[in-house]
Amino acid sequence: MWVKGLPFKISFFMWKLWKGKLPLDDVIRRMGYYIPSKCWCCVMPKEETLSHVFYRSLTALKVWSYFYSHAGLSLEGLNLHLAIVKCWTTKVIPRLKPIFQALPSIIVWELWKRRNNNKRGKAVSTNRVVYQVCNTIQSLIKLRKPGIDRVPFRWTDILRMMENYTPKLKFNKVLWELPMTGWTKINTDGASRGNPGRSSIGFCLRNEEGDLVYACEKEIQEVETDSMLLKKVITREWKPPWVIEEEVKEIRQMLMLRNGRITHIFREGNNLADHLANYALDQGVIECHSFHHLDTQGRRLVNGHKIQCPFLRVKASRQ
Questions:
Q1: Rounded to 5 degrees, what are φ and ψ at 186?
Q2: Is the backbone peptide bond immediately before 98 cis, with ω within 30 degrees of 0?
Q3: CA-based, 20 to 30 A from 227: which of 31, 159, 170, 240?
Q4: Phi/psi at 216 (nearest 5 deg)?
Q5: In this predicted model, what pLDDT tens digit does every residue of 20-47 receive, in sequence order?
Q6: Distance (Å, whole) CA 319 – CA 304
Q7: Which of 224, 274, 270, 231 is nearest to 251 (CA)?
């Protein structure tokens, strides 16, 4: 129910609306308190209900229709909850998905603000509600896509811009580097088929020329780790979780005794260990004491690393 990118108060308000826990007259009546009911969102007051305030009133219908019609969505035959779900689940291009997921929360939040302002004698027009919804959507896009120079304000222009938007790609060269002279480099990784599910580990030792010294892959009963997390825990940048504190101390002692150090590498440069871990789930425990004991894919990865063949890590840039 929480919508990523929206302030907590809006997400929490949406949860209360969905559960019917807002302090409206019909909700108070269900609690056993019978009071005169007056809707504060209409010129000709009617009974105040959750459905009326947020969906059936004239202003609510105009706001929902404006945003849904331009997005190609129909409100025919829908109640409030179904209209919200329809916006959440409609099939759109991935970059529009967060906007469509946030839109219902923004609409009901602005309708709620209008109801409260009207109750205090501060009239808010329908156009003002539409303006505020567009303003929040514009701010959300600026937050998620800071690289876009000019985010339009009107809903129709926002949809057109996002449909035609081409993100910039960010390239990083990832290289498995040969260890220093006299050193042996160990790469390690884990794999899991489900959570919970079968898990395995794989590791390999290579010398300063990139030749395989030893490799092993085997299935284990339980694994819960992350390579960057583990690196920062062992190097004392982060405090270790108490459940692995003893194991972390043991690893630190081993590194000190053997003059070792731990570093982090992206998955593209750690693909041999990743391959070994997944191979263990398919083939079982395997030990390799030389290059020729590896399977075809493993030998190909070793040769690629030896000739220092880089990998390109490509992702959409937020800038």
A1: -115, 125
A2: no
A3: 170
A4: -150, 140
A5: 888 887 777 777 666 666 777 776 767 7
A6: 32
A7: 231
CA-to-CA separations, 51 to 10, 18, 106, in angstroms, rounded:
18, 11, 16
Query: What is the secondary structure of 181-231 as a DSSP string?
Result: TT--EEEEEEEEEETTEEEEEEEEEE-TT--EEEEEEEEES-----HHHHH
Measure the CA–CA gap between 158 and 139, rounded to whole angstroms. Answer: 12
How far, in Å, CA of 14 to CA of 107, rounded?
10
d(CA 244, CA 251): 11
Q: Which 8-state DSSP code applies to residue 55?
A: I
Please write the tens of the pLDDT for every residue from 113-168.
Answer: 998 898 888 989 999 999 999 999 999 888 888 878 789 999 999 999 988 887 77
Dihedral angle of Cα 51, 56, 62, 68, to the nearest 10 degrees: 60
Cβ neighbours of residue 48 closer than 8 Å, sequence gap 6 or more: 24, 25, 26, 37, 38, 39, 40
Enumerate the β-bridge partners of residue 65: none
pTM confidence score: 0.59
CA distance 283 to 276: 10
